[in-house]
Amino acid sequence: MSAAAVPNLRDLYLFRSGEIREHFKQTGDGIAAVRGRTALVESIALQLYAAFVAPDLSGPQDFCLAALGGFGRRVLFPGSDVDILFLCQDARAEQQYKPAIVNFCREMWDLRLRVSPTTRSLAECGRLYRDNLEFNMSLLDCRYLAGDGPLFARLHDEILPRLIVRERQPLVQNLAELTRTRHAKYGQTIFHLEPNLKEGPGGLRD
């Protein structure tokens, strides 16, 4: 299906982004800004899902779309990566929906969104990736967007709890190390004249 099925998507994104910016300038309400950007990006993602994957947002079986990380937590900063997961029941489903995934991501990139897509099977989400623990960490904030709801429920209610129980020590160690590295990068202090409100010590990421 062509992106023509999602008319004026770029105009919608630019218009709504402008509204969010103006509201922030007038109110200084940062929480409303990140919530608004999250809702806007989610709306775009769902329209693209309907165009390229399935018009019925509760389908198809064996495949779903989930938000990860800050997108999953509904705190999507301006310029932040949009972390998304294409969750597949197995390799067959991954192969079947690969063209749709490519089209979906291309459209997001064309909107100048910094999309960081990941495609994993249900079994792969239950593994600890010692060379990519940030993926495991981002999964902890996964949030359902569209597709096979029971498949996502298995990830959220079965696979992830087992992973956390089994691998809690390396996960905690990784989180602590990432936090120490980030704090060191931003000066190990909250007393900056121009602090990084997201990444700095005491910032929203903490």
Descriptive report:
The chain is of the alpha+beta class. The protein has one domain: Orthogonal Bundle (Tetracycline Repressor, domain 2). Helices cover 55% and strands 12% of the residues. It has 8 helices and 4 strands. The protein has a 4-stranded mixed beta sheet with strand order 3-2-1-4, with helices on both faces. The N and C termini lie far apart (41 Å). The N terminus is likely disordered.
Gist of the model:
55% of the residues lie in helices and 12% in strands. By secondary structure, the chain is of the alpha+beta class.
Topology:
Blueprint: H1 9-27, H2 30-52, E1 63-67, H3 69-72, E2 82-88, H4 91-96, H5 98-110, E3 115-121, H6 122-125, H7 133-139, E4 143-147, H8 149-185
Parallel strand pairs: 2-3
Antiparallel strand pairs: 1-2, 1-4
Helix pairs in contact: 1-2, 2-5, 7-8
